[in-house]
Amino acid sequence: MKITVAGVGYVGLSLAVLLAQNHEVTAITTTPAKADKLNKFISPIQDEEIERFFREVNAGERTLHLHTTVDKEAAYSSADLVIIAMNV
Q1: How big is the chain by its Cα radius of gyration, in Å?
Q2: Sign of torsion, CA 35 40 41 44?
Q3: Are 4 and 80 in contact (CB under 8 A)?
Q4: What is the DSSP string of the chain?
Q5: Does 88 have pLDDT greater than 80?
Q6: By residue range, what is the domain housing residue 23?
Q7: How many domains does the chain have?
Q8: How confident is residue 6, by pLDDT bands cut at 50, 70 and 90?
C-alpha cells in the first residue's frame, strides 16, 4: 500500500516510520531542510525510537520504505491512503 503522511512532527513522523516497515510511505513537509534530513534518515525531532530506527537504517540493519518530499503532487498523486498529522 502507498501511504502519504502529511506532517512530520512527533505524531506524523512516528506513524510514517512505523508504517514504512511494511508499506511504501511518502511523508510531506513544507520545509525543504527537514525533508533533506529525513531522506538521510536523520531525525529532526528528539525521539529515542525514531533515532534508533534511523541508526539501524544507516547501519544497514533495517529497511524503511520512507521518502520525504515538499512536492504535493508527488506526495498525493499515487497514495492509496493519506494521513493528516498536523497541528493547526
Answers
A1: 12
A2: negative
A3: no
A4: -EEEEE--SHHHHHHHHHHTTTSEEEEE-S-HHHHHHHHTT--SS--HHHHHHHHHHHTTS----EEEES-HHHHHTT-SEEEE----
A5: no
A6: 2-84
A7: 1
A8: very high
Grid coordinates of 18:
512505523
Count Cβ neighbours within 10 Å for each residue of 31-46 and write b for 16 or more, e otherwise: eeebbebbeebebbee
Q: What is the pLDDT of residues 11-63, one digit of tens each?
A: 999 999 999 999 999 999 999 999 999 999 999 999 999 999 999 999 999 99
CATH of the domain at 36: 3.40.50.720
What pLDDT shows up at residue 86? 85
Cell numbers that stand for 2 in this block: 502507498
Angle of CA points 60, 7, 84, to nearest 5°: 115
